[in-house]
Structure to design on (680 residues):
């Protein structure tokens, strides 16, 4: 198993990426990695680490260009040929032994590059992005699509449901993931034209466990494993959840610091607040996956810690080892042979 | 000035509605109210209250039927003719002296009923719903539309921007409200076909202060006064914000009660937590208004307290006294005479 590691573009690159990759090598003996980025920087990380370094399983590719949040994604993919991300995407396409690309760089560029340059699983109309959030019951929920596809067809929502279901089974061991359609009410007939057309299609899709419409307020309830939506709605859903949680925690902190007695009280609750912060730190739940691409593409948070990036390695390993993409291809083929 | 008060359908009806209406009568000498609902229940509330009751400014209309959350909105409007809400809508349409209808009942039924039965301001394609949320900087932000209109045209987003701007000026005294388009990125070219078509239209709309795209994570930032969106996106935006805040506060409470030392710490912060709960209680910021209807329709939270319902009365008074609907009509007329 061979993973390509984009070692630039994250807040703590290349340290985080190199360190997370080394943790992966230690856990999975069958794994080898290609570290792509600034060679000197990568070598420096390898020298200063206290983790075991098995150089026979590590290749370094020098590609020092960085794609930043300021770059326009499609321009960056076309023009920044010496960047670690573009180089990684090219290697993923051209090297038959490469199983996955993992990056903490620009989400837009990674999605654009992978969508344009990596082939699709047969039957997939367009790849979709599937981040993971923690639920209030201690589990997780995936949201597919979260921004890669706007103006979609009802059949694409069906593909998101199939791909996301195989993903949750393979990467997280969730059996019969409960799939919901994001809507403005739970009743069957709710929604706009897209949702109304998609509902009966989802109801009649084999190989998924469709449980009906979900209102956005129930995202974190733990009653659903996968929410399917167009990329516009998914983007609003994810960013509103993260934004509200972040603003609320910031407000709490500000309010605590506003008075001595609150600060005193907070001393007793230090451990609890630390756990709350950890809970709402989405990177602890793994990266976002681009589903439907012929090869695995995993996006870790820009602010990933080494252990958060290691989670991405674990996720990629689970997907590769379980043959997720083959299972997605089989499920999609079953749809096409289905009587309409 | 004459307001119709739907006194059924809220969690604490008719008490809340009667009490809030009495507070309105006390504050605004020019106001009279029609209390619609179960006559005996309303009379009982009037008897037991300690607020001043000026019977010459109060009319009671007996209409004891209730529309509940279980009723299908359009069916309820058609079939429940003896309900306080349907009666209120009919009176609003038929009584030239009636300025507004205020209700804490079913949102779906109120929007459906008012959209179907109340005329529109000239030029309005369809009325839109505009709730208000508190921002982290102590202000408010309106979201229009929040669910009354799905599958819309770019021109409707323009109408939402115009109507919402006049609303924030008239009801809350906000000068030059900053209007943003809900989108999946702040760059001009972002979004689906609807957003891409709407952006240049909004840029060229007179009588509004358009500041560009807004990502959903910035809703509570205080940088925007009005967010315009299709009803699907607006519904997801509002319900995700409320849902996340609610789940987070619930989790905090659960975690505090899980350990003695946390409970002890929380004792010092009792006042703070009470203020947080108040802050995130959306009813304290007033009701949601159906913009574009010929007469004023205000929806208070189902769980409104008397003072929250009084806020709705104040809002309606501000809108009526300032001639908001006439101003909306003027602004829309200016659009139509604009060279394309």
């Amino acid at each position: 198993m061979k993973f390509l590691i984009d070692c630039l573009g994250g807040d703590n690159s290349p340290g985080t990426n190199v360190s997370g990759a080394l943790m992966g090598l230690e856990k999975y003996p069958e794994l080898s990695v290609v570290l792509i980025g600034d060679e000197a920087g990568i070598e420096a990380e390898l020298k200063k680490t206290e983790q075991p370094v098995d150089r026979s399983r590590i290749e370094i590719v020098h590609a020092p260009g960085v794609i930043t949040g300021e770059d326009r994604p499609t321009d960056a993919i076309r023009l920044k040929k010496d960047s670690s991300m573009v180089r990684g995407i090219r290697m993923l396409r051209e090297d038959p032994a490469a199983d996955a690309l993992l990056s903490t760089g620009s989400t837009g560029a990674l999605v654009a590059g992978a969508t344009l340059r990596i082939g699709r699983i047969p039957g997939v109309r367009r790849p979709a992005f599937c981040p993971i959030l923690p639920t209030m019951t201690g589990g997780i929920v995936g949201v597919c699509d979260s921004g890669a596809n706007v103006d979609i067809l009802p059949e694409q929502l069906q593909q998101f449901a199939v791909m996301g279901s195989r993903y949750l089974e393979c990467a997280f061991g969730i059996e019969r993931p409960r799939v919901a359609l994001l809507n403005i009410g739970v009743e069957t007939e709710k929604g706009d034209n897209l949702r109304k057309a998609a509902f009966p299609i989802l109801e009649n899709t084999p190989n998924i466990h469709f449980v009906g419409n979900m209102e956005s307020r129930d995202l974190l309830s733990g009653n659903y494993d996968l929410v399917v939506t167009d990329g516009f709605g998914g983007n609003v859903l994810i960013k509103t959840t993260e934004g509200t949680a972040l603003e609320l925690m910031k407000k709490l902190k500000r309010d605590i610091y506003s008075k001595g007695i609150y600060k005193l009280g907070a001393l007793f609750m230090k451990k609890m607040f630390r756990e709350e912060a950890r809970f709402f730190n989405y990177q602890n739940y793994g990266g976002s996956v681009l589903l439907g691409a012929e090869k695995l593409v995993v996006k870790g948070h820009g602010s990933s810690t080494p252990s958060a990036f290691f989670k991405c390695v674990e996720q990629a390993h689970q997907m590769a080892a379980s043959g997720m993409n083959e299972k997605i291809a089989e499920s999609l083929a079953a749809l096409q042979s289905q009587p309409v």
Chain B touches chain A through 55 residues (CB under 8 Å). The longest strand of chain B covers residues 209-215. The mean pLDDT of chain B is 94.
